[in-house]
Input
Amino acid sequence: MNQLRQKLTLYGLTMIAVGSCIGSGIFITPADVVREIPHPTLSLSIWIVGGLVALTGALTFSELGGMFPKAGGVYVFLKEAYGDLAGFLYGWVILLVINTGALAALAIAFANYMHFFIPGMSDAEKLLLAAGTIAGLTAINCIGVEVSQALTNLFTGIKLLAIVAIIIAGFVFYDPEKVHLSFSLSENRPQDWLSGMFIGLIAVLWSFGGWHHATYLAGETINPQKTVARAMVLGATIVTATYVLVNLSYMLLLPLPAMAGSDRVAGDAIAAIVPWGGRLVAVAIAISIFGTIAIYTMSAPRIYFAMAQDKLFFSALAKVHPRFRTPVNAMVLQALWAICLLFLWGTYSNLFTYVTFMDIIFMTMAGVCIFLFRKRMPDRERPYRTWGYPVVPAIFVLISGAFVLNTLVEKPMQALAGLGLVGVGVVSYWAVKKK
Output
């Protein structure tokens, strides 16, 4: 019997929403944002905009998750609103780009930070460590969702404590004689600040990406109609507050030029006040990345599982392990493809424009679903109704849509490459349907 086991609680699902967002991004991408917008007020504003996108998206997806409390999340919304092709393409892009690309990049980043503690590792050994991390965490997640929940709770809790320590350090050790920080918009405001904010938003949305992973696990959640909504809203709120505060802390500890020139801004910020701060932050980053890999190896395979149940993907992916009650085949396929990408790429590359562009396209389409369902299904049960409708979902759709169009203009190579892959997916869909 291909049924998933309902074990996830509100706390566990909230930690998944938080842990999916807080990976390596917040320790690295603030430098990219400041590089594009070298002004403290404007730079922090971009992180607030990113939080607004996540929160309005969470409120919107909460109604959708309550209407369709099944495994697969966004895939289910897209399929119900636009048909089988849209659902297939989302799963296709998640498998080939978004999730596996993120997994490969995160695993390489984890291996690079572990090199700090295991000196002398060759590039080949780093790749093997990265592949072993993906394979090992996939095996653990195959055992059962309750094991995954315990692992997620542990690592998300540790990474939040580390970030809290960075925030406290910034406010306690701020020295105005070393770091001059002016929030006045009339001082040092860049001329092309609006364009810079849109480009900086790419890095911000990469860092916020993942809050919707809670919807993928609706089929394994206790009382999903209410729990999924609460978990996403709580998760988006926690992550937004955390990101704004930790960026402010970086600015209190490092001058903006030093922050913009850093490729390890968290380590440099703490090293400015504690000599061994870089090593301490390296531990926090390694734990953070490890925990995020654990979540990604667990959540996205539920999409392939749901697609296979709908006969839109290989039927073997709809199988549930008879003992552990987890979609083992879907999880193993994802791990194998992510490991293939590891050895094809070899190094941690700048993937977030490519991955984020494709992700936000489908998030925008999913946001539009709420308007379609309100019109088509007015009598359908809605355990949760989006607060502030239609303004809140409209904000999410408009900001996300503007981001997609701006990325097409500013980063056409990555954007067109992603759209080309969608074209290949359309051909593959018809081949699968014909078969």
Q: What stands out?
A: The longest helix spans residues 84-114. Residues 205 and 416 are 19 Å apart (CA to CA). The chain has a mean pLDDT of 83.
